[in-house]
Amino acid sequence: MMSTDNPAVLLPECVLEISLQNLMKMSRTANGIVDVSASSTKKDVMLVSDGDEAARKANENFISAIEYCYANRKKKFADSAALRNFVESVGAKINQGIVKSGSLLRSGEDSLKYCYTRLQYMEEELDWFYENLLALISDPNTDPVYLAAFMEYYVNLRIHIFADGCGKSSIALAAWMFMLRDRLPVSYDSRDSYYAHGPTGVYRCGSREDREDFDNFLAYYRTLPSNDSFRNGFAQEENACLNTV
User: Fold this and answer.
1) Fold type of domain 12-227
2) Is residue 170 within 8 Å of residue 155, measured between CB atoms?
3) Backbone angles phi, psi at 3, to 5 degrees
4) Where are the domains of the chain?
5) What DSSP string runs through the chain?
6) Nearest-angstrom CA–CA distance, 31 and 124
7) What is the pTM of this model?
8) How many CB atoms lie within 10 A of CB 58?
9) How far is CA 85 from CA 1, 48, 134, 163, in A?
10) pLDDT per residue rounded down to tens, the chain (245 residues)
11) Dihedral sign of CA atoms 112, 118, 120, 123 in order
């Protein structure tokens, strides 16, 4: 067992427990619901249709992704291409055995249901996202709530990067944003509240309308409860256990 003499130590048990709670609040797949209604072609990339099997894989993959993010909580990136590779590696872990090989990124037909980036602009928007994300995480003054909200909003709500599992991926990646700043993730309230603060229209990343939508989501994200007290309490309990051995 790792030493917890310093209550500021970021414990993997804490990160995983909070992240799994968030997963169960937010993910339909983790709760046994397979939804392919986002676009007419989403069903073509899916390997799993059974709800129980999808839930098992979703939970197993999510735990693996959180552990991977924790192991890389001090990772540095030379450029936006390296950062993109890491983000996509998390998405690949989330989607292992759920989507077909070679179908990680969203493709096919645009969604008529959600305000996602139109596919013709996908690569341009991904370039914008990774360049801005790299600048944000490279600036030690960028607070973790802003980082996590930025990750969630663009990975899941605006660009919707992956063919499936954007919600699960964004939860794991947002947790990673907090880990980069040696903090625990926040606790989500509900799926309905989260999506009620999503994009209001199909706008290009960085446009005035997109910034307004992001600011609205960020304001909501800042209302989600911090888990700093949980972290300190967990560390104290661990110390008490170690001191009795």
Assistant:
1) Fic-like fold (1.10.3290)
2) yes
3) -70, 140
4) 12-227
5) ----SSTT---HHHHHHHHHHHHHHH-SGGGT----TTSTTGGGGBS---HHHHHHHHHHHHHHHHHHHHHTTT---SSHHHHHHHHHHHHHHHTTTTB-TT--B--SS--SSS-PPPGGGHHHHHHHHHHHHHHHHH-TTS-HHHHHHHHHIIIIIIS--BSS-HHHHHHHHHHHHHHHTT-PPPPP--HHHHHHTS-SS---TTSHHHHHHHHHHHHHHTTSPP-HHHHHHHHHHHHHHHHT-
6) 34
7) 0.90
8) 26
9) 31, 25, 12, 16
10) 333 344 456 889 999 999 999 999 999 999 999 888 888 888 899 998 898 999 999 999 999 999 999 999 999 999 999 999 999 999 999 999 999 999 999 999 999 999 999 999 999 999 999 999 999 999 999 999 999 999 999 999 999 999 999 999 999 999 999 999 999 999 999 999 999 999 999 999 999 999 999 999 999 999 999 998 765 554 554 444 334 33
11) negative
Give the tokens for residue 34. 């397979």
For 239, the token pair is 């110390």
